[in-house]
Each structure stands twice: as structure tokens, then as C-alpha cells.
Amino acid sequence: MSFRETRNLTEMLRSLGFPRQVSLENFRAPNFDLVAELLRWLAARFDPTFEIPFDTDSESERVLFIKAVVEFLATKAHVKLNAKKLYSADLACVRELLKATSLLYSAIRPSAQQEGDDGVQVTRTDFDLSDRLHDLKQTRQLASEITQRGATLFDLLGREVDLRAERSAAVARPLEIGTIEQTVRQSIAATNDQITQTLSMLDNLASDEANLEVKIEKKKANLERTQKRLRSLQAVRPAFMDEYEKLEAELAVHYESYINKHRTLCYLESQLEEHNHAEQEQLADTESQLKRMQTRLKEEELRMLRDDGVMPDPAENFDEFGGEFSDDDDLGDDDAEAGGGVREGQRVFGTMDGPEEDSQELSDDDSDTDSDDLLDDDDEDDLGSENSFSDNDF
Questions:
Q1: Dihedral of the CA atoms 231, 237, 238, 241 (nearest 10)?
Q2: Fewer CB in 10 Å around end: N or C, the chain?
Q3: pTM of the model
Q4: Residue range 213-264, pLDDT digits in tens
Q5: Which one, of 308, 390, 302, lies nearest residue 343 by Cα?
Q6: Do 53 and 71 meet the contact criterion of CB atoms below 8 Å apart?
Q7: What is the DSSP string of 57-108?
Q8: Is pLDDT above 60 for 200?
Q9: Three-state DSSP class for 310?
Q10: List of E strands, the chain
């Protein structure tokens, strides 16, 4: 036995209150007196009314004592012990003694833990059953099984009245030799039939084994022929293998050429897209420059007309959105002419004679032609200056 088992036995005996001090060295040599005392004490712990023979001087008395204790523990505590190991009274009996001792020790452990926990403050977390759900399920299952077994036992006990009479009649009935002989012969015949069936099955097994061996030999022969054919086919070169290899080499060359052309085409398409994009950006820049030049020319033209005194102040009559003159300027000119005023720098043609409407129309036409001549001269000068400016810019 191991040192751990001996130590556990001594600790359990000390916890159970065994009156004698047991050490680890007591079981080194056979010590039947100590074993007998332990067995008497254990039997008294299970049932104090049990009577055990105390005489252990002779060999027969020791054998009767061991048998009585073993039978008592088997019936009362449902603990099966080995009588031979107990009789040896050495290290071999430690494990047998440990069976009964551990049962008593496990019985007092929960009570000891409960006594130790009496002075501890109980909190709500101590009643948490979340960790014992498995135990709860097992408890429910055992409860249902106990209920079922109890119902079955109740039914059986209810039939005991009838079964008792039948059992008593069967026991009291005298046995007839002829009936016994007939029953034995029937059993012998059934056994012979079973033997015959078994022998026939063995014969069939032998024939099946022979058939399987024949099939295995055939499969092996077919396998050898197939392997030989495979080796012969692998050794023979196909008829069109040369042409196949040639076409395969040509296909590789054509595929390489196709890959190069496809790559080149993709590159050229990307370059074309980049070129078109650059041209669009250049056209957009050119258009924006032309718009700026037109705006600059209009501003320059308006500035020159304002310096000549032909045009009024652009801050009042210049349309900031369209860049064109509004109709208020013509109305202002007509009002000025109607008032008889002549602006500086304007030329007046015609006489004061004639109808007022004709003279007014002639003066308007002359002023328009003169302003057109001035605008043409200014446009030529401005275009020359802008051309020089645009050449410098580009």
C-alpha cells in the first residue's frame, strides 16, 4: 500500500475519535490485535448493538471474527471487504480498512462544516443556486425516479397476497420423478439442437472462408494483369505525341506573342487617355484665358470711352452681370439733347431749321455714326495692344 493511504487512514481515525493513537509504523509488520480492535470499533460505530466474538487467540477464532465483521459491514454498511487482506493485518489491510473509515468520515464532514459555519454571517450570495443547476437537475431526476420506483413497489406489494398463495402451493407441491425426467430430456434436446445449429454454422463458415479465399485469389490475379497492362501502356509512346508536343510549343510561342500585344495595346490605350485628358485640360485653360482677355478688352474699351467722355460713369449704368449697357443711358442722352445741352467732345451736324422730329433723328444718326467711328478706331488700337500683350503672355 502507498504511504498516502496509510496517512489518510491515521488522519481519519484521529478525526473520528479512535481512542488509540495509530502511527504509520503500526502496519509495517502484521499486527492482528490492532486490526481486530479497529474492526470492533468500526462495527460499534455502525451498530452499537452488534455482538462480535472477542476471542482471537486461535486461528479458527480469528477466522470466525473476520468473517463476522465482513458479513456485518456488507449487510449494514454495504461495504465489501476482502477477508484475506484483513486477516494478513499488514499494509495490505489498510485499503480495506480505509473503505469503512472513509464512509464514516464522509458522513461527519458536512456536519463539521455546518458547525464551523454557525458563527459566520450569512449573506444573500450564499443562497445563490446558479452554480448548482446541475445538482438541481440531478435532484429532480432522482426524485422522479424514487417516485416511479415507489409506485412499482406498491403495485408489487399489492400482488403479494395472490403470489404468496401460488408460491406456497408451488413449494408444497411434491416433485414427480417422471416430470423432472421429462423436463431434463427436453432441456437436453434443446441443447442438442443448439449444438447442431452451431456445428452447421461452423461448416458454413468454413465453406464461406474457402469461397472468400478463391475470390481473393481471383482479385489478386486481376490486379496483377491490370498492373502489367498499365506498365505496358506507360512504356509505349502514343502515335500523335510528336505532333502534340510540336503544337504545344507553337501554342506557347503564340501565347507569348498575344500577351505582348495585349500588354502593348493596354499601354497605348492608357497613353491615349492621358493625351486626351491633357488636351481637354489645355482647351479648358485656353478657353478660360480667352474669356479673361475678352473681359479685359471690354474693361479697357469702357475705360477709353469713359476717358473720351462718350460713356457715362460705369458704376451707375454698367450691368455687372452681362457686361452690356442698359437702356437708361440712351434715355439719359435723349433727355440731355432734349434739354439743349451738348457734352464736351461731341460734334453736332445740321442746322436748327426744319422739323423738330427730323432734326432730332438726324442728330441721333450723326451721333451714332460718330460714336461708331470712334469705337472702331479705339478697337483697332486696343486690338494692337492686346495682340502684343497676348504674344508676350504666350
A1: 140
A2: C
A3: 0.31
A4: 999 999 999 999 999 999 988 888 777 888 899 999 999 999 999 999 999 9
A5: 308
A6: no
A7: SSHHHHHHHHHHHHHHHHHHT-----HHHHHHTSGGGHHHHHHHHHHHHHHH
A8: yes
A9: coil
A10: none
